[in-house]
Amino acid sequence: MENKLSFKLRTGELIIELDKCVGCEAYECVKACSLYGRHLFRIKLGSWGPIPIYDKDEFRRRCIECIACEIMCPNHAIKLILPIEVDY
Ligand code: SF4
Ligand code: SF4
User: Which ligand 1 atom is nearest residue 16's CA?
Assistant: First the structure.
């Protein structure tokens, strides 16, 4: 069974594939959100992957959809699905 976390955002969705986090000690997602985003994750000893600090409603309210967590994750474990208008 896939081990996923998902959060509805203001305009889209954020998905974390936690299976890809096993063994990752970089926690670039946590650092990136702390530096460029809204500090929405923390690290928990004894478990893998980013731990959301807030419940889903509060996460949705606070996330600024900056995609720093997705860009910085070395294992492509985080994906933001956002409606981006392309003007041809
Ligand atoms: S989301 Fe990426 S950086 Fe964060 S713990 Fe998982 S694999 Fe590591
Ligand atoms: S998109 Fe930005 S604010 Fe939202 S969780 Fe990722 S780093 Fe944090």
Answer: 1
